[in-house]
Write a sequence for this structure.
C-alpha cells in the first residue's frame, strides 16, 4: 500500500516542488472555507435570530447543528480517507460543504437552516479530517514539513479571526444570507483546483478496514460528547450527567471493539505514541482557551463597549494579520532553530499572559488599552504554539496512520473549542446573573465582571496546557 501523494508530473524536481506547493494552496483553500464558516456565524447571530424568529436556546443550534456532526465524524472520515483515498474524501467533502452552504444561504425557516448547518458539518468533517495526512505525505522532509505546517496553521488561525470580520461586514452591508452564499464561488474554485492539482493515491480499500460497528460506536460517542458539552448550560445537571455516562459507555464499547476487531477502525497503537497523545491533550486545553477568547471577546466588544457588528469584526483584524505574518515569517525558522518543544512552551506562555490581561478588562475599558495588547499577545502565542503542536502530533504517527492521526487531531480541536465555549460562556452568564440578583451593580458592570471571570478561568486553562506540555512533551534526554 502506498499512502504517499506523488507529484502528477515527472518533469523534474522544480515541477514536483511546484506541484507540492500548489497542492498545499488547494488544501489551505478548502480548510479556510470550513474554518471561516465556523466563525463567520458568530457576529451574524442577532440578525439570524431577528429574521427567522429563533428563541435564545433555539439560536444556539445554528452553531451546535454544525459542531455535532463535524466533531462526531472527523475520526471516521479520517479513517475512511485512508481506505478510499484522501483526495476522494477531500473533494467529496468540498461538494457536500458547498451545496450545504447554498442551502443555508437560501434558508427562510429555522428547520431548513439547522438541517443545512448539520450537512455543512458533514462536509466540513470530510475535508478537514484528511488534510494533515495529505500535507505530511506531501512534505516528508522535516524542514519543508515545518514550513508547510506553518503555512497551513497560519491559514487556519487567521481564517478564524477573519471569519469574525467577514461575518460583520457581510451582515451589515448585505444580509446574513451572504455569510453562507460566499462559499459557493470559493467551493467551486477549490474543487476544480483540487481535481486538477491534487494527485490521487490508492487507498487500502473499504474491505480492509471498514469496521462499521466500531464506526457507529465512536461516531455516536463523539457526537454525544459534543452535544453534552455545547448544551450543558441549557439542561439540568442530572440530564447532563446521564448523557455523559452514556457517551462514556459508547467510548468503552468502542475501545473493547477495537481491541478485538480483526480490522479495527482505530488502531489503538496510535495512542501509545507519547507525542501524539500528549499533543492532542494539550490541544484540547489550548483551543478551549482560544475559542473561548474569540466568543467572549466578541461579546465584550458588543455588550460592554457597545460596538456594532462591523466594528467588532474590524477590531479582530489585527489577529489574522499578526498570526499570518508571524507564522509565515518566523514560525518554521524558529522551530528549526529552537525545536518545536521550546517554541510551544513560549507560545503557551504568551497565551497565558494575554488571557490574564483580558481578565482585568473593565466596564469602562477601551479597545487600545484593554483589548488590543492582549489580542496581540494571544495572536503571537498561537502563531508560535499551533505549528509546533501540529508538528509534534503528526510526528508521532506512522505513515499508514497519517489520515487517522489527522482526524484525531482535528477532533480534539472541536472538542476543545466546544468545551471552552460551553464552560466560559456559562461561567460568564452565571457570574453576571449572580451580581444582578444581588442588586449591587449595573447591567454593564455585571456583564463586564462576568467576562472577567471567564477570561481568568481561560488563563487558568492555558496554564494547565503549559504545565502539561512541559511535562508530557519534553524531548527525551532533556
Amino acid at each position: 500500500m502506498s499512502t504517499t501523494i506523488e507529484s502528477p508530473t515527472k518533469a523534474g524536481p522544480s515541477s514536483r516542488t511546484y506541484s507540492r506547493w500548489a497542492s498545499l494552496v488547494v488544501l489551505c483553500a478548502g480548510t479556510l472555507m470550513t474554518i471561516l464558516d465556523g466563525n463567520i456565524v458568530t457576529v451574524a447571530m442577532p440578525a439570524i435570530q431577528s429574521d427567522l424568529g429563533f428563541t435564545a436556546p433555539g439560536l444556539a443550534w445554528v452553531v451546535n447543528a454544525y459542531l455535532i456532526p463535524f466533531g462526531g465524524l472527523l475520526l471516521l472520515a479520517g479513517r475512511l480517507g485512508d481506505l478510499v483515498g484522501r483526495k476522494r474524501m477531500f473533494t467529496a467533502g468540498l461538494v457536500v460543504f458547498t451545496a450545504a452552504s447554498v442551502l443555508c444561504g437560501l434558508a427562510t425557516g429555522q428547520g431548513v437552516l439547522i438541517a443545512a448547518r448539520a450537512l455543512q458539518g458533514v462536509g466540513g468533517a470530510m475535508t478537514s479530517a484528511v488534510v494533515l495526512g495529505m500535507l505530511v505525505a506531501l512534505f516528508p522532509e522535516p524542514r519543508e514539513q515545518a514550513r508547510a505546517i506553518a503555512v497551513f496553521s497560519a491559514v487556519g488561525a487567521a481564517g478564524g479571526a477573519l471569519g469574525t470580520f467577514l461575518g460583520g461586514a457581510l451582515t451589515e452591508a448585505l444580509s446574513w444570507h451572504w455569510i453562507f452564499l460566499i462559499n459557493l464561488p470559493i467551493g467551486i474554485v477549490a474543487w476544480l483546483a483540487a481535481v486538477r492539482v491534487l494527485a490521487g493515491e490508492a487507498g487500502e480499500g473499504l474491505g480492509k478496514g471498514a469496521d462499521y460497528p466500531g464506526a457507529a460506536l465512536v461516531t455516536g460517542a463523539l457526537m454525544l460528547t459534543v452535544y453534552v458539552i455545547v448544551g450543558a448550560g441549557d439542561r439540568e445537571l442530572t440530564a447532563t450527567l446521564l448523557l455523559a455516562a452514556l457517551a462514556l459507555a459508547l467510548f468503552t464499547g468502542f475501545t473493547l471493539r477495537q481491541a478485538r476487531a480483526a480490522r479495527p477502525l482505530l488502531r489503538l497503537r496510535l495512542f501509545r505514541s507519547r507525542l501524539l497523545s500528549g499533543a492532542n491533550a494539550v490541544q484540547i486545553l489550548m483551543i478551549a482557551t482560544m475559542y473561548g477568547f474569540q466568543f467572549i471577546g466578541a461579546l465584550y466588544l458588543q455588550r460592554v463597549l457597545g460596538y456594532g457588528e462591523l466594528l467588532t469584526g474590524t477590531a479582530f483584524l489585527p489577529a489574522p494579520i499578526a498570526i499570518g505574518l508571524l507564522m509565515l515569517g518566523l514560525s518554521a525558522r524558529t522551530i528549526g532553530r529552537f525545536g518545536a518543544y521550546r517554541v510551544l512552551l513560549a507560545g503557551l506562555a504568551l497565551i497565558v499572559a494575554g488571557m490574564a490581561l483580558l481578565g482585568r478588562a473593565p466596564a469602562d475599558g477601551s479597545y487600545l488599552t484593554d483589548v488590543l495588547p492582549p489580542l496581540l499577545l494571544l495572536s503571537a502565542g498561537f502563531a508560535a504554539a499551533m505549528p509546533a503542536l501540529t508538528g509534534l502530533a503528526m510526528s508521532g504517527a506512522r505513515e499508514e496512520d497519517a489520515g487517522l492521526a489527522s482526524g484525531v487531531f482535528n477532533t480534539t480541536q472541536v472538542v476543545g473549542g466546544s468545551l471552552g465555549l460551553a464552560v466560559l460562556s456559562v461561567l460568564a452568564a452565571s457570574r453576571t446573573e449572580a451580581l444582578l440578583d444581588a442588586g449591587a451593580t449595573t447591567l454593564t458592570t455585571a456583564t463586564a465582571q462576568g467576562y472577567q471571570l471567564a477570561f481568568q478561568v481561560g488563563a487558568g486553562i492555558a496554564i494547565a496546557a503549559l504545565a502539561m506540555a512541559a511535562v508530557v512533551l519534553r524531548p527525551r534526554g532533556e
